[in-house]
Design brief:
Helices cover 79% and strands 0% of the residues. By secondary structure, the protein is an all-alpha fold. The protein has a single domain, classed as Alternative oxidase (Ferritin, Up-down Bundle).
């Protein structure tokens, strides 16, 4: 996978995408990607439930809920590759592939963490977050998404990457619509956050901040497609994978009952 050298590469690409022409050139090649049936079905369920609870239109509180969930696939990939590395550490080629996924997942996870922390701060001035709707329900969605991504990765990594592609596409569309609807208003609002400064971004306004978040989601979307094309089906581990999946299912059943 790409963008595993560190945050500097991600930030450089993000800044390039502020240019509308570069954004379109980066976005267009993967706009018509067609995921397989299972991730497509799960993606529709996940996005559909989100729209049902939070509405179709973008808002600060909807973004807060989206970002609680958005970190999850990267955490699940890290957990899944750690499980696989425990089984296949003796195979150096597999270990390198798994470690590359883990390193990229860490970068993306930290990036999504920045989103949810900063947006939570901004959302406080725009509306009151309900405990059930904006905290407990997103945690429920995140729980479902984590285990769905984890099991899909163990069964066939392509499915997990494609599910993430669909979720990140939805996030990109929401942020893009938000920027179009509130462009001038957002340019007048500051984006002050200690966490954002610590992370290394210094937007002059909320418009610049949300533009950078939109760019991040597009980068994550495209990286998911590239992962499918380059490595998702490069390895298949059969019997031990299904043993691991069975153990996870048993654990989930025990937790739920």
């Amino acid at each position: 996978m790409e963008l595993i050298a560190g945050d500097k590469e991600l930030e450089a690409l993000n800044a390039q995408l502020d240019d509308p022409n570069q954004l379109q050139a980066y976005k267009t090649p993967h706009d018509n990607y067609h995921p397989l049936f299972l991730p497509r079905l799960l993606g529709r369920v996940l996005v559909g439930c989100g729209n049902l609870v939070y509405g179709h239109e973008p808002s600060y509180l909807k973004f807060r809920s989206i970002e609680i969930v958005a970190r999850v696939p990267y955490q699940s990939w890290s957990s899944a590759v750690y499980t696989l590395l425990t089984m296949f550490y003796a195979d150096e080629h597999k270990a390198i592939r798994f470690s590359n996924v883990s390193r990229y997942a860490r970068i993306a996870q930290d990036n999504e963490t920045m989103h949810v922390v900063v947006i939570s701060q901004l959302a406080r001035t725009e509306g009151r977050a309900g405990l059930i709707r904006h905290t407990l329900l997103p945690m429920f969605f995140a729980f479902f998404y984590f285990w769905a991504s984890y099991i899909l990765y163990l069964m066939r990594p392509r499915w997990s990457f494609e599910l993430n592609y669909l979720f990140e596409q939805h996030a990109f569309d929401q942020y893009n619509r938000f920027l179009e609807q509130y462009r001038e208003e957002l340019k007048k609002k500051p984006a002050e956050s200690e966490f954002l400064t610590w992370y290394g971004r210094n937007p002059r306004s909320q418009f610049e901040f949300f533009q950078s978040v939109r760019n991040d989601e597009l980068i994550h979307r495209n990286q998911s497609v590239r992962a499918v094309n380059t490595e998702a089906d490069a390895y298949r581990v059969h019997s031990l994978k299904f043993v691991a999946i069975g153990a996870v299912i048993v654990l989930l059943v025990l937790i739920l009952i």
